[in-house]
Design brief:
The chain is an alpha+beta fold and 83 residues long. It folds into 2 domains: 2-33, no CATH class; 43-75, no CATH class. Helix content is 46%, strand content 13%. The chain has a two-stranded antiparallel ribbon with strand order 1-2.
Length: 83
């Protein structure tokens, strides 16, 4: 309780940042502070949020993926269903 009383603003900032905190009194938990669930974004809001991004360069994307995984990994994958 002391930290909540003395540093309330900092505690609220931590919760706003996504942390869940337990409030104790004499070492015993008495409350929990957690962020409220966020409202889901509408499709319009999602489009607006990502409108400024550059288009995906699929060749570069594929090169990045190939760099992360062993080239032979893709050769051994089955493309036809078993049976």
């Amino acid at each position: 309780m002391r930290e909540l009383r003395n540093r309330g603003g900092a505690v609220i900032e931590r919760v706003a940042g996504g942390e869940t905190l337990t409030v104790t009194r004499d070492g015993e938990p008495v409350a929990e502070l957690r962020p409220l669930p966020r409202r889901p974004l509408s499709s319009r809001e999602l489009v607006e949020r990502f409108r400024h991004l550059e288009p995906v360069d699929y060749e570069r994307f594929r090169a990045d993926i190939d760099e992360l995984f062993e080239p032979d990994l893709w050769k051994n994958l089955r493309t036809d269903p078993p049976g």
